[in-house]
Amino acid sequence: MMNIDTSVVNSINSSGSTAGLSTRQSAELRDSFMTLLITQLQNQDPLNPMDNSEMTSQLAQINTVSGIEELNATLNGITQQMDAAQTLQAAGLIDKAVLVPGNNVMVSVDPENGSYATPFGIELDTPAEKVEVTVTSQSGEVVYTNNLGRVAAGVESFSWGGMTNGGEAVPEGAYRVNFKATNAEGELLESRALNYALVQGVSPGAGGSDVRLDLGAIYGQVTLDQIKQIL
Fold it and tell me: pLDDT tens-digit profile of 146-183?
């Protein structure tokens, strides 16, 4: 029985498995394989012809490589469509207020309307029996505290009027918010502070990277999964 030289088809299989084979290279390898196969068929020993099962196996391998390439092309197309859809979704958040990981609170003072503080939030993996919030100045001075009581698991947003517990307006500027969450047994729970930001722009993902949202000079850029709540 005549055996086929499998070096060409093995080259095709190994190249195809790395996803680094260009369309031109793949076509050249397939042509080489078919040329070799036809030559061997023409020159085979009539008394010892090529095994049909072996020829079928080799042809199946070459078709498998072609199928993988077509599948890769299809997947690349789907990925591009998903990236475009994600970018379009993110573009809908431009000029929207959101909560993202962070503990900054900005206070502005208007002579006519008084003090205004940006909203903030907390993210909990499990429900908390008691959540205490503390707002401090940049120097670490405590300007406001409050017991928020029970807070459900997930994301909750809160507002603060920019006033001390004594009812006095705090100076305009940046402050920090911190949470202490405990369960019914008084055990400390993991919590994550969230701060307010305004989405100002969108940067499309490229080469498999995530779409990024521009939150301005203070907060920089974040990915879609970092948006915890749209206000």
Answer: 999 999 999 999 999 999 999 999 999 999 999 999 99
Question: What distance in Å separates the CA atoms of residue 168 and residue 174, rounded to the nearest whole number?
Answer: 17
Question: Residue 148: is it exposed, middle or buried by C-beta count within 10 angstroms (0-12/13-18/19+)?
Answer: middle
What dihedral do alpha carbons 74, 80, 81, 86 form, nearest 10°?
150
pLDDT digits (tens, 9 = 90+) for 82-140: 666 666 677 888 899 999 999 999 999 888 878 899 999 999 999 999 999 999 999 99
Nearest-5° Cα angle at 27, 81 to 76: 10
Give the residue extent of every domain in the chain.
Answer: 7-81, 100-197
Q: Which residues of 62-101 are buried (b: 16+ CB within 10 A; e: fewer)?
A: beebeebbeeeeeeeeeeeeebeebeeebeebeeeebbbe
Name the class of domain 100-197: mainly beta
Question: How many residues belong to the chain?
Answer: 231
Query: Cα–Cα distance between 78 and 71 in angstroms, integer?
Result: 10
Contact 183, 129 (CB under 8 A): yes
Environment class of 107 (CB within 10 Å of its CB; exposed 0-12, middle 13-18, buried 19+)? buried
* pTM (global) more than 0.90: no
Distance CA 163, CA 141 (A): 14
Tokens found for residue 80: 């591009």
